[in-house]
Inverse folding.
């Protein structure tokens, strides 16, 4: 071919391909795709044959290539589009063949973006060893064309035998028609779509498959957790799959579930595909004018359909192997109408979104699940009255299978109304069932119990229907159906053992009391067992009240009429009974005229406005939703700041970390492809354990014996995990997947993390954390790169969190920079030295938080004699390991300045400036770029970049025989243990260093943690949050207090001071100093006066009183008064003592506060004077409920009488004598001078008013 021919030809093939593309309507921006199999047809055409396009000869080599190209028509099609000439096309195909890339490799991964390297694609790597003389065939422009073109050829086919698929977001899906349906499903949007017929596979021979399908796009409700939605989607798909297996013709057929992944914003795109119901739903059937015309003649068809629905319910409720599903949200909108060829068509139960699957065992677990969605119209009464188990007293699942039976009762009744009174009658009936909620039952409060009965209006309508000649019990089909509704379906009484499917409990349990009068109206089971229709009786119209009773019958193979509402198997059986064997016309015929609605029934339909409102509601939304949201009010009296962490992961950040770390090698060498040795049972878990729905229960003994046999590494890991944890206490232990981590027995913190290798996909619904199974070596480039990524993510994303120090901040202490800093320069800089700051400096600094270590002789610090040398040079080799590690990290993080207290403050000698510099800590820590916390360094010489404690993990693979692509790791995310309770945090100074720091990197012996306003990040890529730690982690500490309610403020500062009082200080008298910066911060943030660990809220009287009401911690034998250097700290301040303190916990808003003059009150009597009225007391009853004293000096010194000042007195209706009084116990300051008016605090406590004696007048406490 000549060159011009080639160009012309290329245009032809492009035109041909373009002309054959079909438009996908799935996305808003419609794109073309190549229908399956069409490309092959194009190349079969003589004009565009492969031989011609590539210029192939009959040589062996060419014939080999031809064979390869025939197996890869898509690659060939793409190449035909983006290569100019015969040579390039041929070479391109040769390269693919040579590198074993065929159609199965598609899509090729897009070129990877990396700031430090050029974009490289697989295509370019094919040509890496190209001779200089050769021109490359893959260049930027056609590489890009390749990635654009490959999309049109990769449109997948839906295999209707397959459960589900994940599609890359960029893949074009083969839907050629799309229309949004106004009906909302349980959650999400419903579309009518058509699949291109060549993109459906798996249709059995002779089976008809309608390419029109219903596609439900699941959309999360506001703020609903990612994981919750995924779980719902998986659960619904699981339920639907089980339904499919039943092959019941009255259950909507589920086709497949699919998900789009890889969206840049991590949006949720989850879908479920069903067969298309051409008639809409049952509500629409009732409203159809066409159906209205013939409805009287459709009685038999209606009853056949109800029988069919009963069979569907029966099958779903009683799956093989003890499995069961209940629908949980049956309503006319969820019963779909397939019109078929004339007549009524077929009704099928759809929307199993609320379905709950259980095996018999687990259903019995006391469980109070509420679905949270959907209408309450068809809700059964036990939702309100409750079901209780006799055995455990716990609440049972109120949406049991009998709940579905109730809903079918409502729907069947509506069907009857429709047949007997016509569509208009049904509207009026529906408008008459009113109430809040507008259910088919009504609730009456009987003492403490709630008693339900069938709605009066429904009962009246049923009574009226029973008068109609077409509705004669035992004579006509409708009469018998009505009887089934009122005697068997719309029955409020439920038998809990039937509800749960549990066999009866111990035989002696039924008490005479269970036969209460409320059992009225329920036929004896013996009598109704095989009830001939002639024996059906006219019912008692009141309906039976709810009363739980027991029978020995579970849902079983042989339907038996139990007590109360019947099970679906019995309902099904009754429908079969009434349909078969009665072919006489009289039985089925109901005449041609609708029954007149009696005036009194019509009046029940509230008023016409209500009626039309009802109509509008149903017509517009297709459903009536009454979502009940609970308005939570926080009761600070009960608020306790928890130590519970939430654990999440962020694969966006994890991916960028992995890409950055890849520069330093591919990650840890230990991420081996070989998988753990597993027993058969565990090898079955490999495709489940990472799923959000995974939960597995073990008997502890079984777990142990398999583990100890040494045959299975997963069993062993599970065993060790539960043995180390509290799971060991129970006979059974369960592992449950929550956010890509396993938790023991459904609670607590994670014990095992499921992490996958970067760039792998495990399967449907995966929500798996990307992480290394093993940490990178401490101090390695990779390790510090992770820290750098944390900081840069925080720099970029946390602009509003205040994680970064503002460059222009002024403080009360003058200049906003540390007096001295260590200049570290860039990595490898060899003249580290002390540096005197100047006012014009702006470069950021990093501060070190560390402990000095016990051996004072080994402390490395600046003093008056070495400071000048240090200004010249701090010899790197002389630096203790902790400091040299800090220098290294500072350099690696790109900071040039480092602040270390022992070096930047002159610690001793004539030039010592400790006292001045100690007051500037607030600025040093809060102004730092970040703080390095040497958590694992016990002193100056230990260093903190040391090997971390190893942790256990197993490598796993999806599918048998594959390379490992994920891991199960022992959880090492324990911020409480490793940081908050760690050795460094035991040091007094560190509390404010941590609190004042905007962001801190904690180097622990287990792993590195990063804390900023966004929470805590770990090296394992976990993200942790906690409301207690959030105060210390707050970059603008304590900003969260400035908006907090008073109660929360009090609890938070109390928790902080209780914590601080337990921290160690090498010099006791530093106790007020080492927290001074923090206290100043608290005071200014809350705009309060105060000091000495006390806040004075002025008019807000509780604040001062509560902060004075601290007492000796239970673990302290006594509190020692600190011999303060200047002796200024008053006795009523906990800062005057060593040892831990605890605050009295007084219920909020329950106390009246007495007058106290503090040093911050206007007209104060001195800097440390507390002035109040003293009272004498005498304890008569020392029982703890009435009185309790905690003496500061310890137990055994309390006396039964003495002096106190009253701070708070309990509110309430009792007499003053009965009220609890909170007091400070006081004694004259100098015992030798009895007439002294100056007092000291000696303890605190509470006592009753009855023990209070006369007032002693005003006293001063210092
Ligand atoms: Zn095993
Ligand atoms: Zn941040």
């Amino acid at each position: 071919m000549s060159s011009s021919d080639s160009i012309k030809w290329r245009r032809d093939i492009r035109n041909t391909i373009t002309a054959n593309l079909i438009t996908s309507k799935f996305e808003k921006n419609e794109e073309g795709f190549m229908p399956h199999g069409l490309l092959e047809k194009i190349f079969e055409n003589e004009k565009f044959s492969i031989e011609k396009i590539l210029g192939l000869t009959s040589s062996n080599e060419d014939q080999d290539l031809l064979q390869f190209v025939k197996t890869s028509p898509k690659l060939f099609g793409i190449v035909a589009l983006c290569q100019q000439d015969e040579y390039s096309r041929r070479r391109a195909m040769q390269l693919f063949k040579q590198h074993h890339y065929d159609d199965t490799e598609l899509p090729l991964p897009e070129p990877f973006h990396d700031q430090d390297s050029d974009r490289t694609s697989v295509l370019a790597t094919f040509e890496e060893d190209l001779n200089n003389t050769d021109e490359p065939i893959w260049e930027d422009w056609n590489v890009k064309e390749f990635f654009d073109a490959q999309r049109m050829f990769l449109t997948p086919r839906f295999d209707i035998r397959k459960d589900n698929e994940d599609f890359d977001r960029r893949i074009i899906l083969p839907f050629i028609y799309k229309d949004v349906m106004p009906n909302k499903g349980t959650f999400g949007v419903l579309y009518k779509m058509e699949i291109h017929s060549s993109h459906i596979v798996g249709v059995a021979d002779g089976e008809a498959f309608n390419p029109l399908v219903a596609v439900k796009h699941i959309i999360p409700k506001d703020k609903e957790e990612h994981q919750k939605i995924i779980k719902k989607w998986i659960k619904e798909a699981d339920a639907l799959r089980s339904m499919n297996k039943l092959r019941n013709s009255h259950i909507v057929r589920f086709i497949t579930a699919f998900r789009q992944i890889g969206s840049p914003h991590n949006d949720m795109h989850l879908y479920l595909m069903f067969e298309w119901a051409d008639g809409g739903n049952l509500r629409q059937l009732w409203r159809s004018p066409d159906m209205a015309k013939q409805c009287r003649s459709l009685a038999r068809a209606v009853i056949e359909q109800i029988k069919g629905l009963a069979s569907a319910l029966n099958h779903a409720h009683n799956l093989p192997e003890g499995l069961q599903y209940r629908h949980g949200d049956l309503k006319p909108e969820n019963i779909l109408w397939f019109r078929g060829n004339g007549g009524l068509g077929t009704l099928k139960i759809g929307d199993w979104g609320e379905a709950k699957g259980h095996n018999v065992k687990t259903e019995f677990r006391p469980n109070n699940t509420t679905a949270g969605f959907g209408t309450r119209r068809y809700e059964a009464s036990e939702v309100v009255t409750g079901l209780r188990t006799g055995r455990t007293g716990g609440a049972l699942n109120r949406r049991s299978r009998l709940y579905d039976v109730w809903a079918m009762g409502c729907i069947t009744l509506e069907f009857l109304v429709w047949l007997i009174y016509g569509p208009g009658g049904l509207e009026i009936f529906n408008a008459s069932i009113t109430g809040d909620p507008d259910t088919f039952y009504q609730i009456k409060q009987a003492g403490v119990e709630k008693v339900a009965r069938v709605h009066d209006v429904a009962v009246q309508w049923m009574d009226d229907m029973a008068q109609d000649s077409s509705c004669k019990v035992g004579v006509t089909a409708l009469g018998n159906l009505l009887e089934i509704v009122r005697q068997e379906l719309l029955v409020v009484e439920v038998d809990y053992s039937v509800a749960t499917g549990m066999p009866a409990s111990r035989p002696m349990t039924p008490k005479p009391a269970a036969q209460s009068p409320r059992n009225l109206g329920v036929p004896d089971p013996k009598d109704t067992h095989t009830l001939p229709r002639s024996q059906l009786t006219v019912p008692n119209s009141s309906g039976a009240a709810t009363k739980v009773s027991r029978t020995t019958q579970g849902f079983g193979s042989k339907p038996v009429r139990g007590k109360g509402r019947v099970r679906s198997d019995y309902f099904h059986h009754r429908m079969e009974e009434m349909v078969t064997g009665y072919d006489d016309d009289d039985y089925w015929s109901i005449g041609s005229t609708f029954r007149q609605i009696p005036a009194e029934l019509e009046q029940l339909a509230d008023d016409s406005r209500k009626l039309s409102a009802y109509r509008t509601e149903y017509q517009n939304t297709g459903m009536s939703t009454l979502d009940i949201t609970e308005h939570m009010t926080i009761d600070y009296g009960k608020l306790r700041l928890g130590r519970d962490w939430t654990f999440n992961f962020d694969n966006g950040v994890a991916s960028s970390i992995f890409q950055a770390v890849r520069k330093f090698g591919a990650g840890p060498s230990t991420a081996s492809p070989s998988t753990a040795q597993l027993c058969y049972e565990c090898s079955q878990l490999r495709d489940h354990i990472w799923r959000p729905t995974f939960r597995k229960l073990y008997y502890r003994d079984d777990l142990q014996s398999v583990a100890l046999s040494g045959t299975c590494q997963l069993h062993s890991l599970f065993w060790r995990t539960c043995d180390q944890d509290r799971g060991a206490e129970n006979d059974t232990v369960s592992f449950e997947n929550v956010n890509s981590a396993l938790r023991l027995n459904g609670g607590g913190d994670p014990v095992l993390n499921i992490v996958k290798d970067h760039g792998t996909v495990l399967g449907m619904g995966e929500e798996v954390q990307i992480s290394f199974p093993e940490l990178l070596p401490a101090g390695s480039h990779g390790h510090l790169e992770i820290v750098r990524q944390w900081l840069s993510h925080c720099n970029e994303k946390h602009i509003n969190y205040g994680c970064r120090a503002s460059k222009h901040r002024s403080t009360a202490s003058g200049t906003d920079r540390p007096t001295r800093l260590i200049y570290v320069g860039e990595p490898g800089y060899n003249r580290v030295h002390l540096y005197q700051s100047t006012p014009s400096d702006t470069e950021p600094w990093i501060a070190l938080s560390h402990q000095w270590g016990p051996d004072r002789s080994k402390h490395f610090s600046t003093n008056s004699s070495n400071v000048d040398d240090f200004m010249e040079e701090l010899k790197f080799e002389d630096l203790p390991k902790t400091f040299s590690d800090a220098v290294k990290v500072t350099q690696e993080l790109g900071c040039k300045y480092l602040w270390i207290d022992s070096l930047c403050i002159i610690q001793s000698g004539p030039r010592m400036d400790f006292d001045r510099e100690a007051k500037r800590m607030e600025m040093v820590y809060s102004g730092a770029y970040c703080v390095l916390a040497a958590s694992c360094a016990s002193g100056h010489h230990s260093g903190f970049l040391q090997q971390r404690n190893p942790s256990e993990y197993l490598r796993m693979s999806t599918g048998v025989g594959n390379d490992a692509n994920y891991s199960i790791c022992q959880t090492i995310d324990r911020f409480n243990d490793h940081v908050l309770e760690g050795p460094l945090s035991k040091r007094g100074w560190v509390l404010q260093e941590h609190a004042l720091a905007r962001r801190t990197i904690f180097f622990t012996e287990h792993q590195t943690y990063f804390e900023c306003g966004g929470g805590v990040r770990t090296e394992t890529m976990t993200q942790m949050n906690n409301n207690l730690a959030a105060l210390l982690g707050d970059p603008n500490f304590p900003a969260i207090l400035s908006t907090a309610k008073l109660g929360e403020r009090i609890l938070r500062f109390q928790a902080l001071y209780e914590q601080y009082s337990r921290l160690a200080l090498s010099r006791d008298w530093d106790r007020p100093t080492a927290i001074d910066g923090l206290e100043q911060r608290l005071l200014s943030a809350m705009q309060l006066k105060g000091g000495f660990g006390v806040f004075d809220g002025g008019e807000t009287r509780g604040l001062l009183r509560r902060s004075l009401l601290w007492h000796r911690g239970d673990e302290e034998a006594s509190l020692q008064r600190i011999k303060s250097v200047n002796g200024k700290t008053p006795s009523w301040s906990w800062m005057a003592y060593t040892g831990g303190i605890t605050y009295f916990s007084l219920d909020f808003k329950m106390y009246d506060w007495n007058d106290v003059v503090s040093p911050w009150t206007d007209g104060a009597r001195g800097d440390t004077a507390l002035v109040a009225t003293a009272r004498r007391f005498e304890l008569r009853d020392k029982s703890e409920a009435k009185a309790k004293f905690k003496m500061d000096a310890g137990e055994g010194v309390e006396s039964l009488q003495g002096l106190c000042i009253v701070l708070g007195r309990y509110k309430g209706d009792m007499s003053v004598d009965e009220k609890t009084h909170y007091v400070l116990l006081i004694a004259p300051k100098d015992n030798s001078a009895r007439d002294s008016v100056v007092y000291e605090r000696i303890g605190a406590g509470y006592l009753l008013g009855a023990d209070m004696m006369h007032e002693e007048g005003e006293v001063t406490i210092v």
